[in-house]
Design goal:
The chain is an alpha/beta fold. It contains ten helices and 14 strands. It has helices at 15-26, 48-58, 73-76, 85-94, 128-137, 157-164, 203-210, 251-259, 289-306, 323-333, and strands at residues 4-7, 31-34, 39-44, 67-69, 99-104, 119-123, 141-142, 170-173, 184-187, 194-197, 242-245, 264-268, 281-284, 310-313. The protein has a ten-stranded mixed beta sheet, with helices on both faces. It has a four-stranded parallel beta sheet with strand order 11-14-12-13, sandwiched between helices. The two termini are 33 Å apart. It binds threonylcarbamoyladenylate and magnesium ion (MG). Threonylcarbamoyladenylate binds at residues 35, 37-38, 40, 64-67, 98, 100, 102, 114, 117, 119-121, 125, 143-145, 182-183, 185, 196-197, 228-232.
Length: 336
């Protein structure tokens, strides 16, 4: 059985459609919905059974906690047990938006949401459809990205349909998401705050808002050590085809693969120095970080759908604006 897909205007979602989705959430079912970053796979965060269905649908390990989406900073305080000044400042500056804050959890949040831990990740998304759904349901909504575990996040409803199929009850289709990469995850249970996952809100913007440096040392995520952000396991964002990060424009590697008969995808900048053979897919990527982020997952999905065996990615700029993109590319390229 295919999931029900309801088309919804990304700017002015129809109240009737949102009411159907909100009722679905309240019934304990799963709704995939757009956010400004990627599509989320949502369930009532206060309903233990409903949240378990998210883990089953994604094939996600139960120790990897979920982000709880809320309508406002006020609503966030219903799921966290502490709301320090740093949280207030960051919420005032970046919410609604792609910043996730990790804080001690309230009792009402079931352990299944937090991977058994005592902290909960919260964010107020800015996408009008996500906001309408949160307001109409009157509930906090637990939602990971709407993709099977260890696969590329969904940035369109088609990605959700293709990858999650009937494991979702309802999909709200508001077209492709604008951000393209996931939110920044920041741990506020330590001082200074610590970056757990780079994302659409930059470290520089966070530091400017807090008038304080944050800790950005990335721990090497190992399955054997207790993890601060378990979703940061290296392969988390892996596409299906093996991804190769080039040190230059990648043309030498692309040519070598073609010579061996490997169907290769190529994400590069500028004009193509060589012609695209049949079965291969070469894409000129935007040179601006924000636009690159918007296009990246969609392009990786397209390359996989085209059946390429390898994806060569031309080196990206060293600039801090490219931090989250570099992070996702490195994880996708890391060996199993
Ligand atoms: O942009 C986004 O954040 C999207 C949209 C749907 O909001 N969501 C998303 O969720 O990317 P997910 O589940 O794919 O990634 C959540 C990340 C994981 O790395 C997870 O380990 C981390 O947040 N996380 C969640 N709760 C945590 C907690 N209590 N402590 C530390 N890390 C946590
Ligand atoms: Mg994810």
């Amino acid at each position: 059985m295919n999931p029900e897909v309801l088309i919804v205007d990304p700017e002015q979602p129809s109240e009737a459609t949102i009411a159907v989705a909100a009722a679905t959430i309240r019934r304990g079912e799963l709704v995939a919905f757009p956010t400004e970053t990627v599509y989320g796979l949502g369930a009532n965060a206060l309903d233990e059974k409903a949240v378990w269905r998210i883990y089953t649908a994604k094939g996600r390990v139960s120790t990897n906690p979920l982000i709880v989406h809320v309508a406002s900073a006020q609503a966030a305080q219903d799921v966290v047990s502490e709301w320090p000044q740093v949280a207030q400042t960051l919420a005032e500056t970046f919410w609604p938006g792609p910043l996730t804050l990790v804080l001690p959890k309230q009792k009402c949040v079931p352990a299944v949401v937090t991977g058994g831990g005592e902290t909960v990740a919260v964010r107020a998304p800015s996408h009008p459809v996500a906001r309408a759904l949160l307001n109409a349901s009157g509930l906090p909504i637990a939602a990971p990205s709407a993709n099977p575990s260890n696969r590329i996040s969904a940035t369109s409803a088609e990605h959700v349909v293709r990858a999650m199929g009937d494991r979702v009850d309802l999909i709200l289709d508001a077209g492709p998401t604008s951000g393209g990469l996931e939110s920044t995850v920041l741990d506020l249970t330590v001082s200074p705050p610590r970056l757990l996952r780079p994302g659409l809100i930059s470290v520089a913007a966070i530091e400017a808002a807090l008038e304080q440096n944050i800790s950005t040392t990335q721990s090497v995520p190992e399955a054997s050590v207790p993890q601060r952000s378990p979703g940061m396991l290296s392969r988390h964002y892996a596409p299906t085809a093996r991804l190769v990060l080039a040190k230059d424009d990648g043309s030498t590697q692309v040519e070598a693969f073609i010579a061996k008969g490997v169907r290769v995808g190529w994400l590069q900048f500028g004009a193509l120095p060589i012609e695209e053979p049949a079965g291969c897919r070469f894409t000129e990527m935007p040179r601006e970080a924000g636009q690159y982020a918007t296009a990246l997952y969609a392009e990786l999905h397209r390359m996989n759908a085209a059946g390429v065996d390898r994806i060569v990615v031309a080196a990206i700029p060293e600039d801090p604006q490219w931090l989250a993109i570099r992070d996702r590319l490195q994880r996708a390229a890391s060996p199993e």
